[in-house]
Write a structure and sequence with these properties.
Blueprint: H1 2-27, H2 33-51, E1 53-54, E2 71-74, E3 80-83, H3 100-126, E4 133-143, E5 149-157, H4 161-170, E6 190-200
Helix pairs in contact: 3-4
Length: 201
Amino acid sequence: MKTYFVIALSFFASSVMAQSLKDSLFGGKLKNPHKQVEAARDSARQAAKDSAVLIAPAKKDSPSPAAGPVTAATENTGAVAQPVAEAAKPDDTMPDSLNQLYYAKQKAWKRFIDQQTLILATQADESKKVRKGEYYIEFDYVIGLNGRVKASNIICNPQNEFIIASMTDILTRTPVLAPPVYGDGKPRPLSAKQQITILKK
């Protein structure tokens, strides 16, 4: 009799234990070991993706101010991770202390233009190809990093081929100038326009 009682008690106890284990497992108190391994792998993969931040390649064109700061994106979804410093804009100031030579050469350029204007006016007076009147001459020029002047787009109003040809010849003998030096301490080429007026009486 005692044997039956012990067997019945052990059967009852085992069924109660099994039920509590089942409740614990499905109730979330116990973790499934297979699911724990999968969760650990997923978290390791996510951590590897988050640590590998890719920086977007810089575009050739400079970003517009309205576009906002350039940001780094993560590999998985392109989510913003952190701002990346924008390329520094060049300093467009021209400090006097760095441009003594530039200003001196500009005075030499003015003397050259004044002398050549007188020569051109004399040539126009002596030429039958130029009618009486006022002529407005304009041209573009660039002072290169080596100080050489390159002129282009010579315009004469009213149109006169003799004046344009003479001006083209004059601009092949320009003095060597100096490019301006900007606030960052570096010289840069300078583009400018020059206007001349001559009068044939």
